Amino acid sequence: MARDKDVSTYSNYESRDALFAGLATVVAAQLADALGQNGRATLAVPGGTTPAPFFEILRKVPLDWKNVTILLTDERFVPETSDRSNTRLLRETLFQDLAAAATYVPMYLEADQPEDVLGALQKSIAEALPLDICVLGMGADMHTASIFPEADLLAEALADDAPIFLPMRAPNAPEPRMTLTAPVLRRAGHVHLLIAGTAKKAALAVAQQDGPIIDAPVRAILPQAHIHYAD
């Protein structure tokens, strides 16, 4: 879908089932297009439980999955055995059926703290970039990925010259996070923002108003985003 990359577009679905199916259809078509043009495609996806139905639909779409690289937009710095691990959720919901053939780029390596493995993780992530498709979520506090208001490296993550990947600590995040930075997210060929529920809709309305990006980090990607919403 050709559009002005500086103006967000909006799809309002009649139900969450329609939302997840519609998003899967769009993303699958964009993956197929990237594969057709380049012979490979890179997809970044959010963690958490909200996108699970989207993953369960997408994983059954016939694509050249062996040439698709998938990474998270952000991860909690916890081992995959933790029920807080986004990687664990992906393995349960996305890397099944046909999508089991895709390549996964991790955002966690065992260490005492994220800084101990930052270089190794950045290297593997850099090799997967640029992103062809990026699907993001948004919290009620208007964070996206793990770019939180009041996070310790918020300004660095939002800067135009940000590194591709940063550790992040925030007041409302129980553990350190690892996140792609704003420039990487918004430079994706296609950016999708998945919003479900009236509370998130209200937060989005605030974020769409003029104001400092540091107060609502999702503003960093809104101009490029196709918003997908259902109550």
Can you describe this structure?
- The protein has helices spanning 16-38, 52-58, 86-93, 118-128, 154-158, 182-186, 198-207; strands at residues 9-12, 41-45, 68-72, 74-76, 103-105, 133-136, 165-168, 177-180, 190-196, 225-230.
- 30% of the residues lie in helices and 19% in strands.
- It is of the alpha/beta class and 231 residues long.
- The radius of gyration is 16 Å and the shape is globular.
- The chain has one domain (9-230): Rossmann fold (3-Layer(aba) Sandwich).
- Helix 1 crosses helix 2 (52-58).
Quaternary state of the chains: single chain
Determine the mean pLDDT: 95
Tally the helices: what do you get? 7
Contiguous low-pLDDT stretches (5 residues minimum) are 1-5
Between the first and last Cα atoms, what is the distance in angstroms? 24 Å
Large-scale geometry: globular
Strand composition percent: 15-25%
Number of strands: 10
Overall structural class, as computed from helix and strand content, comes to alpha/beta
CATH class annotation: Alpha Beta
